[in-house]
Each structure stands twice: as C-alpha cells, then as structure tokens.
Specification:
alpha+beta; Immunoglobulin-like; Beta-Lactamase; Helix Hairpins; 4 domains; 7-stranded mixed beta sheet; 6-stranded antiparallel beta sheet; transmembrane helix; membrane; two-component regulatory system; EC 2.7.13.3; phosphorelay sensor kinase activity
Length: 733
Amino acid sequence: MAGIWRTPFGIRFKLVFLSSFLLVIPWLGYQYILEMEDYLRRGQEEVVLGTAQALATALNERPELFDEGTFSPAAKRPENLYVYPIYYSMSLDDSATMDWRDYQRYELPYGRANTIATPLNQQSEFSRYYHNDDSLNFRLLVGEHNRYLYAYIKVVDDNLVYRSPDSLSIHRSDFLQISMVNPDNELTRYVISPRGPEFIYAYRLGEDIRDIGALVHEERINGQWYETSDGYTVELRLPLNLLGDQLGFAIYDVDDPQARDVSAVVATSDVNSAERLGSLLRPTPEIDKIVEGMGHTNSRIQVVDRNNRVLLSVGDIQSATGLALSREPAEDQINKYWRYVEDRVLHPIYYQILTKPSNDFIDDLYVGSTLEGAHLTAALAGQPMTQFRTLDDSETRILEAAHPIMADGDVMGAVVVDQNMNGLRTFRNQALETLFNTILGVMLIVVFGLFFFASRISSRIRGLRNQAENIIDDNGRLQNTIVASQNSDEIGDLSRSFFHMVERLGQYTNYLENMSSRLSHELRTPVTVVRSSLENLGMVVSDKETSVYIERAEEGINRLNLILTNMSEATRLEQMLQTSEKEPIDLAKVLAGCVEGYRLAYPDTEIQADLQGRIMIRGVPEYIAQLMDKLIANAVEFSYQNRPITVYCRASRDKAILRVSNYGPYLPEEMKDRLFDSMISVRPQEKQREPHLGMGLHIARLITEFHQGQIRAENIADYEGVAITMTVPLLHE
C-alpha cells in the first residue's frame, strides 16, 4: 500500500529507546531522597530547639548570671583581666584588626602608671613606678570564643627594635611577655620576640629569661605581629586549657639598637610573680560551665541577655553542621580509574542538578556584639521559635532556634542554637551520588543487555532476510533455499515456515520450467500425425476448394510446430550450457563473420560493423553466434525502413562491450527491466501474425550469463532508437 508510513528505526533502537523509560527510576529515587531530606530537616529542627530548651532550663532562675554590672569598665581593676565573649572566630593573618571593632569599647589602657621593674631593668627590682613619659603605652582587650582566649594588644612605641636575624637571644629587642598560672598552679612564662612583622613564635622561658638554652617553642600560642605608624599591634590566640585563673601581659621596650638594653617595661601586673599576677575574670563562668556540661552538640550556642548582648558564644557556624558525616575513604582505598570517572564525568553531571555546599561563608546577620532576628525577638518575648534563613552569597541555609531564659517570671535572656544545613545537604548529595551511581550501573547493564539481546534478534532476522533475498536471482528464478533454524522461538518457527514454503515453491517452479519441454514432447506426436494425415489427404483429394483448406491446415501445423520448437529451445539451451566448456576466442572475429552472414540473410537491411582490434574472451563461438542471431532478428523486426543497424564492439579496461543499436520506437520504461524475462514481448499487434513467445532476448540473457557477463536494453538519447548492450570479461593473457 503506497500510503504506508515506514519508520527508519530498527529493533535495537526501539528497545534502547524503551529502556530509556528506566530514567524514571532515578527521578523517583531523587524524589524519595528529597522527602527523606525534608524529614531529616524537621528532625534537626526539633533537635536544635530541644538543645536550646535544655540549656535554657539549666539557666532558668539564675538572675545573677545576667548581672549587667560585670560589663561596666568602672567595676574593673587594672591588674585583673576581664574576658569578653566573642561569637565569631578571629582572623589572625589578615594584617588588620577589623575583627575587634565591635569590642574596642572594652579596651583597657596601660601606660606610665603601669611600669614595673624586672631583672632586665637598670632600676631596682622593687621599684614599680619609675617611668616619667608616655613614649611607651598599650591598650589591651581579651576575649573568649570556642574554648580559645584571644588577645589584642595595641602598643605605642616611638622606637622599634627587632631581633637581629642571627641572634638567638630573645631579651635584646622589643618583646612581649605572657605570664600565667597554669591549671597545675605553676607560674609559666612565654616570650614573643620577632625579627620583624611576622607570624609570632612563642617560647617558654626557664628560670632566667637570658638562658637561651632553656627556651622551648610553644606551638599552641599563635598569632600575628603587625607594625603600625606609631608602634605595633599584636593579635594572639591560646587554648583555655593552657590557662589557670591568673594571667598577665608585659611589654619590654628597647630603644638603643646598639646597646640593646631594656629601658622600660609596661605590664598589666607583676608578670614575674605568681602572688602578684592579676586574675583572669570571665563575666559568665557559670554559664560557660553549664554549656560545657551539655557536651558537644555540633552547634553554635550563644547566650544572650535581654538587651540582645552576647554573653557567651561557643562553636563556629561554619563547622556547626549538626550531623556526624561518615569519613570519606582514603585515596589509596579508592580505585584511581573510578575516582577519575567520578571527578571528570559523573560529578560535573550530578552537580548540574545538585548544589555543592560551601563552608566559606559569613553570617552578616550577627555582625556586631549583639544578635538580631525574628527568632530572638520571639524568644525575648517569651515564645520559643525556630526559623530557616538563606545566605544570598553562598546559598547556605541556617537553622536557628531560640528559647527564653526565665527568672521570677521575667525573661532574663535567651539561648540561641544555630546550625548550618550544609551537613544535611552534603548527606543528601552523598546519598544521591550513591543512588545515581548504583542506578547508572544497573541501567548500563540493562541497556547493554537489551542492546545485545536486540542485536542478537536483529542479526537473526537480518540473516533470515538475506537468505530470503538470495533465494531468487535477478531474473526471478529460484537458486538457493533457506536453512531451517533449530531454535524454538518465534524466529525459528518463521525460519522453518520459510523453508517449507521455499521447498514447495521450488517444486512448483521446477514443474513450470519443465512444462514447456513436456508439452513440446507430448504435442509433437499428434502434430506429426496431423501433418502426415494432411499430406495423405492432399494426395487423394483433387478438388481445388478442398486443397485450399488443406493448405491452411498445413500452415497452421507449421505455426504450431514453430511454437513447439521455440518452447523447447530455451530448455535445450540451458541443458547445453551446463555441459559446455569455454575456450579463448576472438570476439571481433566472430562478430565479423556473423555480420557478413546477416547481410546475406537480410538484403533489405543495412547492417554496419564498428569493430576494432583483437578482443579475446573465454566463450563458445556458436553461442555468441546464436546470441547475435536473436539480437539482429529483434533489431531487424523493430527497425525503421532505410535505417542501418550497427554492431559495435570495443575493449574497455577489463571488459568487452558489444552493442547492437537500431533506429526504431522507444522501449516502454516499465519494460526495460523485464525485457529479458521468459515469455515477454513488446511487439505491436500487427506483428503478432507470426508465432512469437518472447524467448529470443531471454535466450540472449542465458548466453550472456554463461559468459559471466551482463546485458541491458536502453533507449538512445541522440535519436529515436534502442541499443542492447552486453559486457563480458576480457581474457587476461
């Protein structure tokens, strides 16, 4: 049917296309993990609020913990160091003191009134007040964050003297001394004596500050020494477990770079005496103990008074993920090829959909020494609240919970517990990566399995198609059969059905092919009887009218005999071709002899010969002559009067080309390919008086195929005429 729509896609493509619907599985897995993430987020919200409630319950009915007078500078003594809560980690390597801007109002000054005598001074060790100008002074601020003590010291010094690059002594330049009573109630002293503005290196002192052999590097104390226009600034950090309850700082000043003697010392207290060392006062020690007693919650915990002022801050929001994620396997435990595929192929695809969390973010809402937010406002109004907030710059989500702290029915403050959701997002990403990797592996196996299965099916079908196409040659004759498959599936059944069908068709075709010879053989006897009877009748009948009828009957018998001869000619020729042997012949010589004979046989027709050279082929001269008889007879029959017939023969490359052309009517286009089939004729009705079964060109084709050549008929474009061309292989001498 002409209107049938055909798809260009085969079975393999269709099966692979259908398998693409497996992609709905990762989508379902993705939706499932998103639902799981939502449940985990709700659970994390309840945990954070529960932590805030537990801390608030522990701080309830403790109004003394929120005494605002502990923050008043008027209540402080110079030798004692007051520690202020810092709620974010200080940067110690940014060459600036911007992190301290929210706390600088709590700085305490130390100058001429705070000079002391030391073994390195020229004055008496027992004199305290001896310095008479303000050329040396400093301002100090001490804060606490996440179990670390931070110190900020801004020194005014009119003449800076650093350690010499090759000097091992730490007392012959400007330096900072840190003295403390450690948790074992022992006096411990440390010195920071740089060779210039640099990252500080602290050394623990022995009994004598001048004993360089007793110096021990203390790596737990770190920070930065900056040089300013009027002196220098020191930022440092040390862990709280290094400290006891007493702490002091002293600035040693050297003015003469040649003599390098200590000219003055300004200190917070007597840093060389445990009895006279100042105390380390923390405004919220009880709050700190309560929070520390809650254990590690992997959250940022802040205690805020009712004026939104931070009293205590523990934990970093950047690391407060709330989830304990499993450690990634070591690099040597992961196959390097799989790692390459993950890093270069899978992850770039996955993270087109997923968002990779980053802990490199700043929470701008809490910039300053006070907190803000709807959750905190609600908690200070007596109502617990949780909220989620997204940071625009990094797309990080923050989970915040606040719970009020009550005392005598009044709100004294609030506990704020924060966590970032990066841990949950990382957990989700890890789950999705595992899911996608697993599904991808399963899908690849399924797709390759389906592809192999489809390839197997298509190859079997294609093989069956090829066998079916090779059964019949270009002339419609059966030449092969189909090998019946032994498989028990549908394709095997189809193969066996084709086999039986071709077998029956072959039997029927063989019957049809032999029918003409059988008919010729069977009809010749009655034709002979009729002919002899007519001959005998003609000898005994002398009536003129009867003789006319006898003559017509004989003419009919002759026509019938010619028909029988034509019917058996092709069959006899095929049988002869099967037993004939080829020999080298000169095709041009054979054709020249044939043309001479045709000129005598057809004196009314001009036959031209365009033959050139010696053209050697392997063949049988008699069959070539028989082929030419059919072609010339066909050309003479269809040629216009007074128009020549041309016989052309040339050698071209490895083939001999024989062409017989004549002036005559064009062949119908639909008959060009069928002209050489058996029983096919395109003669007009007026030429059907002579018996003709359309076997001439069929015989020509049989002879051509016997010589391993090809024959075709075509209309001539230059003039109205037809050319029949035969090509046969040349003999390679």
